[in-house]
Each structure stands twice: as C-alpha cells, then as structure tokens.
C-alpha cells in the first residue's frame, strides 16, 4: 500500500507549488518548505485528535466540495466559499483556540508572511481533508485510517516543526497519537481479560463433571475450552489499529473525482444554506482578535482576516491612496436570496458587520465598495444589478452606524468579467463578487 504522503505528492506537484507561489507572491522554496511542514503537521493533528465523530463527519463531507475535485483551481487561488468553510471547520476542529499559534509556527519556520501562511492553509487544509475523506469513502473505516497514519508517523515526524507538540498539549512530538492508541489497547486487553475470566469460570465449573464422565464425554468440554481460547486470541488480533503495528483496513490510494453538482442559488459567493448537521459542523469560524482585544468570528483567510493583517502591515502603512486603488478584498460570505437580485440572506449581514467592527478599530480608514457580475445576460441589466447590490451592502454599514466610513460605491457589471458567458455556472461564479478597497 502506498504511503499517504507519497500519494499526496502526486497531487502537490512542483507545478502546483509554482502556481501557489505565484498566487501568494512568495519565493517558491519558502512555499515548498512550508508545505513540507504543513502536511505532516495536519496528519499529526488528525492522529492526535483520535476517533472524533466531528472530525470523521468533516472528512466525509469534504468529498462533496466541488472545488476539491479540481485541484488546479485550488492551487491558483480559486477556492469557493464552500471550500473556505471546509478549511475553517477542519482547522478549528484540529486546533481550536490554538489555531493562531499554528499559523504563527508555520510562518516562523518557513519564512512566509503571516498573510501568505493564512492563504496557504486555505489551500492545503481542504485538500488534505478531501484526501483523507476519499480514503473513508473508498471503503476504509476511520480507525483503520488512523492506524495507517500511525504506522507511517515515523516517516513524517521529523518534518513537523519544533513547537508543534506544545500546540497539541504534548511534551514531545513522538507522543502524537499515543493517548488514543493506548486507550484502544487498554480496552482490547480489558475485553480479553473479561473473556478469559469467563472461560476460567466455565472451565472450573465443569471440571468436576469432565472428570466424572467416562468414555468420550470429556471431549465435549475440551472442545468448549479450546473454542474459548481461540476467542481470546481473536480478540487480541482483531484490533486493526493497535499501537505497536498500526495496521489498518485496506483503503484506496487515489483521490476520486467528484462531479460538481449544479447550483440553483443566485449568489455572489456560493454558500450552502442547508440546516444539515454535518454542514453546520463544517461552518465553524475562527476567532480573530483585533488590536483592542475585541474578538470577531470569521473564516481563516477570509476578508476579515486579510484586512486585519493588511491594516497592521508595513505595506499598508507605507501605501498611498493611489497604491491602494488596486488592492481589493473580496467578500466571501455575501449571498443574495434565490430569485431576488438584491435581498441578502440573513447570514450575509454578519460579514458586513464584522467589517464595520474592523473599521472602528482603525478610525482613519474608509472603504469603497464594488460589485461585479459575470458576462451572462444583458450588459446594461448586469450593470444595474451590480450597482444595486453594491448599495445593498452599503445599507448594512449605514444601518450599523458605519455609513460615514463608506467613501463610495460602484457597480461594474460585467466590465471586468473574464469567463465566457457560455461557460458553466461554477466557472462563471468567480466573476460574480462584492469587493472593497481601502482609502486613508
């Protein structure tokens, strides 16, 4: 069976690393170094998390995210809202309130900027989640998958950066997964001991009867005893994820292709609004702490995260308004009700409110809101729709007391759309967006 890391290397090719580097604006060797630490670290975190139902559900749900089936789009920064939410749910489940520490560790060990690390995790984490999810979908079981990771951990522990053990609450990296497998081993031994006790009780109970029986009567009790012994041996050997051997149920070594499902939502960025319990688990948010100590909940790598990092950077401090004209931030959770061109879903207001809170932290900053459509339909209608949508977002700022921070709004229609009008809805989705840029 092929090593899990070797399987992933066939997907994260040198060409993929080059594309990611271009997207991040970072040196290829730094990105390569970061990926070599991120992937093993995620494997280690999954192993330490153990047989967690929420984690298993997230991995199973990951195979249904359309963007994952086309990794080339992911590597060029074209992750949709569903993929970003998968990344958020996966990372939050593994690291909880230590996620910020993990980001900092990867940045310091690889030399990447904090903003680049956030984007990189937004690319690699959903890929890893989908990869492991495909293992489960192909017939393996979660304990078996953990067993395989455990059996291979000696091949990747050396790639995990120093300090990672502390993030997981361990004294040493070598202890990753030990608590789970010790528990499994203990449970197996306890079960075997219980069976052994019952066998001994049965044996002693009938020992006298065996001695009293003549002829072949004793054979019946000998067979019962031997069968009980075989049962004990079977209980010891059936554990497919024992700590010592780390064996697992066979799983397929290739990532299967998942055909994207057609969308019936009128959205700027696609968001699954079902009430499915598993979906809700994936939609977990990352607490982001602002300079004043105020905490907002947002997706890692999302617009709030990007803005906070940028506003605190030297790039922003040294930038002129002319420089800022080409620096746009895309909303990643703004959605309009199906059948309505300008009515926002209730969830969409949360992100706009978050932006208002961030602006309160940086009182000298103002924003301009821009809205864009794809090429499908009449150009004038698209222009009108984009203007209405830009104003709809502004109204949220006004309603929450931040209207004076909006310097202007503009609808661009399909002016900057790049994808052909006859392309699929999924391909055209990246041209439909609401964005903002900063002004001093």
Layout of helices and strands, plus pairs?
Layout lengths: L3 H6 L4 H11 L3 H22 L3 H10 L8 H5 L5 H15 L3 H12 L3 H24 L4 H11 L11 H4 L10 H35 L4 H21 L39 H6 L3 E4 L5 E4 L4 H9 L2 H4 L3 H4 L3 E3 L17 H14 L4 E7 L6 H21 L6 E6 L13 H4 L4 E7 L1
Helix pairs in contact: 3-7, 3-8, 4-6, 4-8, 6-8, 7-8, 11-12, 14-17
State which percent range the strand residues make up. Answer: 5-15%
Q: Output the CATH homologous superfamily of one domain.
A: OmpA-like domain
The strand order across the widest sheet is 3-6-4-5
| Rg over CA atoms | 27 Å
Termini distance?
57 Å
Please state the structural category. Answer: alpha+beta
Number of H- or I-type helical stretches: 19
CATH T-level fold name of one domain: 60s Ribosomal Protein L30, Chain: A
Shape from CA axes? elongated
Level-2 CATH architecture of one domain? 2-Layer Sandwich
The top level CATH class name of one domain: Alpha Beta
Count every beta strand, where a strand is a DSSP E run of 2 or more residues. 6
Helical coverage, percent range: 40-55%
Main sheet attributes: strand count, strand direction, barrel closure: 4 strands, mixed
Order of helices and strands: HHHHHHHHHHHHHEEHHHEHEHEHE
Q: Low-confidence runs (pLDDT<50, min 5 residues)?
A: 238-283
Integer average pLDDT: 78
């Amino acid at each position: 069976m092929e090593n899990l890391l070797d399987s992933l290397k066939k997907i994260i090719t040198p060409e993929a690393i080059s594309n990611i580097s271009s997207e991040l604006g970072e040196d290829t060797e730094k990105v390569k170094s970061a990926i070599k630490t991120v992937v093993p670290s995620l494997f280690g975190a999954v192993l330490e998390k153990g047989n967690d139902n929420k984690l298993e559900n997230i991995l199973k749900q990951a195979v249904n995210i359309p963007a994952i089936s086309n990794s080339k789009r992911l590597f060029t920064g074209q992750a949709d809202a569903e993929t970003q939410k998968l990344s958020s749910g996966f990372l939050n489940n593994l690291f909880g309130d230590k996620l910020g520490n993990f980001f900092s560790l990867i940045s310091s060990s690889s030399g990447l900027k904090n903003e680049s690390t956030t984007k990189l995790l937004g690319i690699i984490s959903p890929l890893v989640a989908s990869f492991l999810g495909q293992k489960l979908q192909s017939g393996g079981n979660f304990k078996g998958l953990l067993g395989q990771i455990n059996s291979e951990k000696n091949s990747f522990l050396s790639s995990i950066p120093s300090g990672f053990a502390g993030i997981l609450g361990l004294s040493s990296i070598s202890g990753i997964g030990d608590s789970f497998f010790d528990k499994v081993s203990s449970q197996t031994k306890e079960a075997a001991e219980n069976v052994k006790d019952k066998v001994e009780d049965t044996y002693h109970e009938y020992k006298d009867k065996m001695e009293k029986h003549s002829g072949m009567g004793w054979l019946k009790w000998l067979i019962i005893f031997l069968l009980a012994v075989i049962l004990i041996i079977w209980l010891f050997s059936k554990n497919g994820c024992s700590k010592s051997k780390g064996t697992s149920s066979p799983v397929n070594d290739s990532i299967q292709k998942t055909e994207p499902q057609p969308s019936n939502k009128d959205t700027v960025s696609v968001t699954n609004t079902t009430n499915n319990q598993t979906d809700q688990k994936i939609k977990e948010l990352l607490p982001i702490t602002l300079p004043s100590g105020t905490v907002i909940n947002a997706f890692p790598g999302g617009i709030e995260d990007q803005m906070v990092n940028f506003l605190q950077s030297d790039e922003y401090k040294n930038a002129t308004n002319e420089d800022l004209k080409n620096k746009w931030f895309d909303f990643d959770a703004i959605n309009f009700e199906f059948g309505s061109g300008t009515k926002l879903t209730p969830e969409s207001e949360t992100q706009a409110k978050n932006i208002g809170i961030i602006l309160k932290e940086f009182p000298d900053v103002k924003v301009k809101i821009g809205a864009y459509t794809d090429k499908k339909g009449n150009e004038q209608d698209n222009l009108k729709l984009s203007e209405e949508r830009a104003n709809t977002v502004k109204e949220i700022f006004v309603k929450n007391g931040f209207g004076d921070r909006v310097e202007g709004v503009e609808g661009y229609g399909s002016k900057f759309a790049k994808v052909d009008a006859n392309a699929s809805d999924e391909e055209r989705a990246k041209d439909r967006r609401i964005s903002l840029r900063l002004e001093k």
